[in-house]
Amino acid sequence: MTNSSEDIAATQRAQDFQFGWFIDPLVFGDYPISMRTRVKNRLPRFTGDESALIKRSLDFVEISHYTTYYAQKSSIDIIGELLNDTLADSGAATLS
After folding, report:
1. End-to-end CA distance of the chain
2. How many C-alpha atoms does 49 have within 13 Å on its Cβ side?
3. Interior/surface letters 28-39, b for 16+ CB within 10 angstroms, e for the rest
4. Handedness of CA 43, 47, 48, 50 (dihedral sign)
5. Is the separation of the CB atoms in 1 and 70 below 8 Å?
6. Residue 95's beta-bridge partner residues?
7. Could you tell me the pTM of the whole model?
8. Residue 50: is it exposed, middle or buried by C-beta count within 10 angstroms (0-12/13-18/19+)?
9. CA 7, chain centre distance (Å)
């Protein structure tokens, strides 16, 4: 939404929670650090063997980009209290 440091950090978190959640384990062998930090023990941990097995295990990735979203820091936690889900965990509100 803006070039503020809070919105830039929220943008990275939104990307981590929407894209990194799936691609980071396949490329780096683990979930994004922002997810580990925010989700804590609700996010499963890979064993060393599991991480080594999935890391760089893909041959091809296709990304179809249809819509641009703007992100901003979300300080409203009502969703987190009610749903306890990835939308709340990201701490980012995305708008198209």
Report:
1. 10
2. 0
3. ebbbbebbeebb
4. negative
5. yes
6. 70
7. 0.77
8. middle
9. 15
pLDDT at position 86 is 66
Name the residue among 84, 1, 3, 77 with its Cα closest to residue 43: 84
Residue 52: pLDDT over 70: yes
Q: What HEC string does 24-74 produce?
A: HHHHHCCCCHHHHHHHHHHCCCCCHHHHHHHCCCCCCCCCCCCCCCEEEEC
pLDDT level of residue 68 (50, 70, 90 thresholds): confident
Q: What is the per-residue pLDDT for 70?
A: 86
Distances (CA, A) of 22 to 17, 35, 64, 73, 85: 9, 12, 14, 22, 16
